[in-house]
Design a protein that fits this description.
Layout (H helix, E strand, L loop, with lengths): L12 E4 L3 H12 L4 E4 L11 E4 L2 E4 L5 E2 L3 H9 L4 H4 E4 L2 E4 L3 E4 L7 H9 L5 H16 L10 H7 L4 H16 L8 H12 L8 E4 L3 H4 L1 H10 L3 E3 L7 E4 L2 E4 L5 E2 L1 E4 L6 H4 L7 H8 L3 E10 L10 E3 L7 E4 H5 L4 E7 L9 H15 L8 E12 L17 E3 L12 H15 L5
Parallel strand pairs: 1-2, 1-14, 2-10, 14-20
Antiparallel strand pairs: 3-4, 5-9, 6-9, 7-8, 11-12, 12-13, 15-18, 15-19, 16-17, 17-18
The structure holds flavin-adenine dinucleotide.
The site of flavin-adenine dinucleotide has 37 residues, from α1, β15, β19 and α15.
Amino acid sequence: MDRLEDLDHGVNVAIIGAGWAGMAAAVMLAQAKTPVTVFEAARHLGGRARSVEIEGIELDNGQHILIGAYRETLRLMRAVGADPEQLLLRQPLAIEYPGKFSLRAPRLPAPLHLLAALLAARGLTWGERIAAMRFITAMRANAYRIAADMPVSELLGQHRQSGALARHLWEPLCVSALNTPAASASAQVFLNLFRDALDGARANSDFLIPRADLGKLFPQPAADFVCANGGSVRLATPVRTIDKSEDGFVLDAAAQRYSHVVLAVGPHQVDALLDRFAALATTRKSVAALAYEPIYTCYLQYPPEVSMPQPMTGFDGGYVQWIFDRGRLNGRAGLLAAVISAHGAHQNASRDELAGAIHRELAAFLPGLPAPLWSRVIAEKRATFSCRPDMVRPANRTAVDRLYLAGDYTASDYPATLESAVRSGVLAARLVRGEHA
Ligand SMILES: Cc1cc2nc3c(=O)[nH]c(=O)nc-3n(C[C@H](O)[C@H](O)[C@H](O)COP(=O)(O)OP(=O)(O)OC[C@H]3O[C@@H](n4cnc5c(N)ncnc54)[C@H](O)[C@@H]3O)c2cc1C
């Protein structure tokens, strides 16, 4: 691999896709004063984590949550002048199923904070608390590695994690983090997150809940940073073909040649853009083999006096998994966001039926709840890949010299998240610069 300095003045990088991976790569390159152009098919930045306009207000295409262990995301936010302390509500790990289960991590060093949280949790039997501590001790002893990957539910079964422990702690954490039900999710990927979030510094397990629209967290400040550092971001400019000639890469969307390409589109968009490269047949095959999971977000606008007891509340027994109170988060009083991760029966309901059912679930919790003023269901059918055991994920480096992949689906020990997208973009930029030769 060439060092960038060896490439003389001919370096100019095309990044295809302005999601969090593409923008992370662009920021890294712009920071190093490497000429970069980002091509984005949509009229907006951010890809699957973007702002959309609903009823005249900017909202997110889906409620997102970050955790303290997202070190690269937080680092790049700071690099582009987006202050995580202002933009994200930092809360110690806390899971609340009102009247059923409550777990709150005190401000103690890890893993004591988790052990203390389990001891003080409401809704667990003493047998379940002891089983949880044994499980954590066993996972720690093996450095969170298992000899052979398996579904999360199998790992939980092997370690007697049943009852409320499974239903209100491990399974919701699994489906939220991996967007895959415990019965089919990769135990090893779950443990990777467990290791970083629950057994690193205490702050790694903090929930970081956006107080601003997703666009303001990273995509927009990142684009501003790229443009201020000599790069450019072209919205509404889809790339339909990539070819390689002797003097560089040729994109149908641009007249000039590019020395390097970072393909930062979603996994289901990769195949069509690589069809001119016979050497990439294996890469295309592994991306095509990915299965997907949806995420549904239902916004319900109630009168401003309606609010939840905390910013994030767990629900079970119906469709809703979590309710986020946007009034408590970014001042839009009365606006609640209901989140349903992964596949399930909700996919068979029409949007109106779903919004109605979610309202009824909320009304059972908030007696006297008036009808919503409006509601909107956003169904992201391919929100993330389905994070199964022993997945084969393609590397950032491809068999075509100077053509790299970036995105939440590339090889990584994390599930499809903002952090895996950002890490992948950072890695692709480093490969462009020859830093990981
Ligand atoms: C509803 C929802 C909720 C989520 N919740 C969380 C959460 O709570 N926490 C978390 O960490 N993660 C969450 N995720 C996952 C997270 O959003 C994704 O992992 C991440 O945004 C993926 O970023 P990416 O850059 O890899 O891909 P993408 O966001 O898919 O970006 C790809 C970009 O490429 C563009 N593109 C495609 N084809 C072309 C082309 N031919 N030419 C030019 N541009 C093109 C697309 O328009 C898009 O902008 C959630 C996802 C969804 C959908």
